[in-house]
Backbone:
C-alpha cells in the first residue's frame, strides 16, 4: 500500500532515472541487467549500488540495476499482463500478487539454484512466520504454495490518523468516528476503493448484525468472520457499503490520494483514513511543527496489507532477481529500508528487534507473533515489548484484522460503486 511522499518521491524519481540512464547508456547486455519495478521512495537508494557489488562478490558476474517506479498497482499489472515490459522483479500489493499468481503471471522464486545458497547468504528465512502465514492465504490454483512465488517486503494496517488536540482516543476507537458531526469537513478519506471498502464492510456488517440481534452491543466479529468478508464483493455487500458511504459523504472534506498527510500536519483536517506507514510518517512530520497526531485501528477490525516481491512471467534475469530478494531480506538492509521509507519490513529477526526497540516508549506491545529466533520460537520478552505500536501493531490489533483478496471480475462493480459515492 505504498504511496508517494511528495518531496522524497522527487528524490526517488531522480535517483531511479539516473540508475536507468546509466544502465541504458552503458549498453549493458540484457543478461547482465536487472530490471526492477517498484513504488517510489520504497528503498534506501544506496542499497541498489551495494547490491551490484554484493552480487558480483557472490557470483563473479556483473549486474547493473535499472530501477523504475510505478504509483498504481494496476498500471504495473497492465504492463505484465500485456507483456509490454520484461521486468525481472516487481513489488505489488497483496491482491495484485494474488491476481498474478492466479493468472499464471509469476515464476517460482525458489529452485535448486536458490536452495543451494550457502547459509551465510540465505536470508529469506528471516521473513516473519506471521507474514509467511498471510502469504499462504493467497488464493492460487493447482495446489501451489504462494510462498514459493512471492516474498514479503513491507506490511501494515489501515486505520484512522487523528489530531490529538481536537480528537480523543475514545472518539476514534470505532469506525463510527467517521460519522461524528464534530468532524464534518475536518475529515479526509483515502481515495483507494479497496482500502475503504474492506473496513467499511466490516463496520457495516457489525452494525447490521447488532440491529438483527445477532451481536450484542459489546460484541464484535471474529477474525474468521472478518477473513470471510475479505472475499465478499457480492451485490448485496457492495450495496451495503455504498449505503454507509453515502451516509458518510456529507461529512467528508475530500477524497485524497496523497495530500491527506499534508492536511493533517497543517491542521486543516482532524481525521484521515490512512495507512499505518503514512500515519507514522505524518506523525514525525507533524511533531517537527508542533502538531500532535496519532493513529488508531478501530475495534471493529480492519485490513492488514502487505507488498511483496514477485518475478514476472517474462523476466529475463531470474537469477539476479532471486539474489536481490535475498539481499533485501538481510536484517541490516531491512532496517535501513525502514529508516528510509517509514514503512515496516517483514523481517522478524533479533537484529531488527534490537534496532526497533525503544525502552523509552510508554506503550507495551505483544509482538511475540512477529519476532522469532532461528528455531521459529518467539524471541524472549517480545510478549511485553516497548516498540512503536503504529509500526508494529499489538497482537490484539492484528487479531481483528485480515488480508484483502483480489475481487476478480467483481472489480468493475466495486469501481462503479466508488464512482457513485464520490460523485455525490
Residues:
Amino acid at each position: 500500500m505504498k504511496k508517494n511522499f511528495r518531496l522524497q518521491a522527487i528524490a526517488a524519481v531522480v535517483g531511479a532515472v539516473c540508475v536507468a540512464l546509466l544502465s541504458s547508456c552503458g549498453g549493458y547486455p540484457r543478461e547482465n541487467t536487472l530490471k526492477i519495478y517498484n513504488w517510489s521512495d520504497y528503498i534506501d537508494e544506496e542499497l541498489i549500488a551495494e547490491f551490484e557489488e554484493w552480487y558480483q562478490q557472490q557470483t563473479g558476474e556483473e549486474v547493473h540495476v535499472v530501477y523504475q517506479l510505478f504509483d498504481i498497482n494496476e498500471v504495473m499489472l497492465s504492463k505484465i499482463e500485456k507483456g509490454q515490459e520484461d521486468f525481472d522483479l516487481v513489488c505489488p500489493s497483496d491482491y495484485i500478487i494474488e491476481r498474478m499468481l492466479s493468472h499464471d503471471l509469476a515464476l517460482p522464486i525458489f529452485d535448486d539454484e536458490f536452495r543451494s545458497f550457502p547459509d551465510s547468504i540465505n536470508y529469506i528465512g528471516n521473513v516473519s512466520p506471521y507474514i509467511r502465514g498471510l502469504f499462504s492465504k493467497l488464493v492460487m490454483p493447482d495446489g501451489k504454495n504462494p510462498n514459493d512465488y512471492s516474498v514479503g517486503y513491507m506490511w501494515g494496517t489501515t486505520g484512522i490518523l487523528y489530531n490529538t488536540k481536537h480528537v480523543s482516543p475514545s472518539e476514534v476507537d470505532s469506525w463510527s468516528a467517521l460519522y461524528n458531526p464534530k468532524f464534518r469537513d475536518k475529515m479526509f478519506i483515502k481515495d483507494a476503493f479497496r482500502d475503504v471498502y474492506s473496513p467499511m464492510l466490516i463496520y457495516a456488517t457489525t452494525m447490521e448484525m447488532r440491529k438483527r440481534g445477532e451481536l450484542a452491543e459489546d460484541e464484535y466479529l471474529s477474525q474468521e468472520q472478518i477473513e470471510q468478508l475479505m472475499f465478499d464483493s457480492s451485490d448485496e455487500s457492495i450495496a451495503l457499503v455504498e449505503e454507509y458511504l453515502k451516509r458518510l459523504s456529507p461529512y467528508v472534506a475530500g477524497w485524497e490520494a496523497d495530500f491527506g498527510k499534508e492536511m493533517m500536519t497543517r491542521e486543516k483536517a482532524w481525521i484521515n483514513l490512512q495507512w499505518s506507514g503514512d500515519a507514522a510518517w505524518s506523525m514525525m512530520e507533524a511533531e517537527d511543527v508542533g502538531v500532535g497526531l496519532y493513529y488508531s485501528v478501530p475495534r471493529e477490525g480492519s485490513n492488514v496489507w502487505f507488498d511483496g516481491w514477485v518475478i514476472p512471467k517474462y523476466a529475463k534475469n531470474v537469477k539476479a532477481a532471486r539474489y536481490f530478494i535475498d539481499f533485501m531480506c538481510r536484517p541490516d538492509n531491512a532496517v535501513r529500508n525502514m529508516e528510509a521509507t517509514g514503512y515496516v519490513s517483514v523481517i522478524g529477526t533479533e537484529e531488527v528487534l534490537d534496532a526497533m526497540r525503544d525502552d523509552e516508549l510508554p506503550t507495551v506491545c505483544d509482538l511475540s507473533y512477529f519476532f522469532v529466533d532461528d528455531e521459529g520460537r518467539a524471541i524472549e520478552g517480545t510478549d511485553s515489548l516497548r516498540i512503536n505500536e503504529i509500526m508494529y501493531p499489538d497482537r490484539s490489533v492484528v487479531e481483528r484484522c485480515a488480508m484483502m483478496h483480489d475481487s476478480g471480475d467483481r472489480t468493475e462493480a466495486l469501481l462503479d460503486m466508488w464512482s457513485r459515492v464520490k460523485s455525490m
Observations:
- The chain has 16 helices and 15 strands.
- The two ends are 26 Å apart (CA to CA).
- The longest strand covers residues 151-163.
- Residues 3-25 have pLDDT under 50 and may be disordered.
